[in-house]
């Protein structure tokens, strides 16, 4: 199975309709085989590109959270984004061993997220805004969606 926090499992219900690379992974039980690494990495690249759009837009929501919650969410976003970037840099080799962020690097992410949270708290309700166009959002209460 893929290593680290980016894993594909046969029973996951992730929608891959827009990811043509998944066709190369049939049958799903064979996903772990080395011969599928290029295709798996292609799918992961696509998923991480989409995730990055959400990571960039998350500042809007983080800015609206209580300080401790905002710091926690910003830290998690930063660490998981870092793991995704490591997977991208390692390419197919990312599945040879667990991809992780070292403790010193995590501490840097915690500190950076704390600073970001304080800056966002000072800018409420403003702050740098990223487009959420095309990203899923919870429907407004009372809407028909």
Description:
48% of the residues lie in helices and 0% in strands. It has 145 residues and is an all-alpha fold. The chain has one domain (20-123). The relative contact order is 0.16. It is flat. The protein has helices at 37-57, 59-62, 67-90, 103-123.
Brief account:
It contains four helices and no strands. It is an all-alpha fold.
Percent helix among the residues? 40-55%
Rg from alpha-carbon coordinates: 18 Å
> How many domains in all?
1
Beta-strand percentage range: under 5%
Can you tell me the residue ranges where pLDDT is under 50 for at least 5 consecutive residues? Answer: 1-18
Order of helices and strands: HHHH
Overall geometry comes to: flat
Measure the end-to-end span: 37 Å
Number of strands: 0
Major sheet details: none
How many alpha or pi helices? 4
Class of secondary structure makeup: mainly alpha
Average predicted local confidence, pLDDT:
77
Based on the model shown, name its key terms.
145 residues, single chain, mainly alpha, 4 helices
Topology:
Elements: H1 37-57, H2 59-62, H3 67-90, H4 103-123
Helix pairs in contact: 1-3, 3-4
């Amino acid at each position: 199975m893929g290593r680290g926090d980016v894993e594909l499992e046969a029973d996951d219900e992730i929608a891959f309709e827009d990811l043509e690379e998944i066709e190369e992974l049939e049958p799903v039980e064979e996903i772990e085989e080395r011969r599928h690494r290029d295709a798996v990495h292609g799918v992961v690249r696509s998923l991480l590109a989409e995730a990055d759009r959400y990571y960039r837009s998350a500042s809007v929501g983080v800015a609206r959270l209580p300080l401790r919650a905002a710091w926690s969410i910003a830290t998690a976003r930063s660490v998981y984004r870092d793991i995704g970037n490591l997977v991208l840099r390692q390419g197919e080799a990312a599945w040879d061993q667990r991809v992780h962020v070292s403790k010193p690097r995590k501490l840097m992410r915690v500190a950076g997220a704390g600073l970001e949270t304080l800056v966002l708290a000072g800018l409420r309700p403003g702050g740098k805004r990223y487009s959420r166009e095309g990203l899923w959002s919870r429907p407004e209460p009372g809407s028909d969606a």
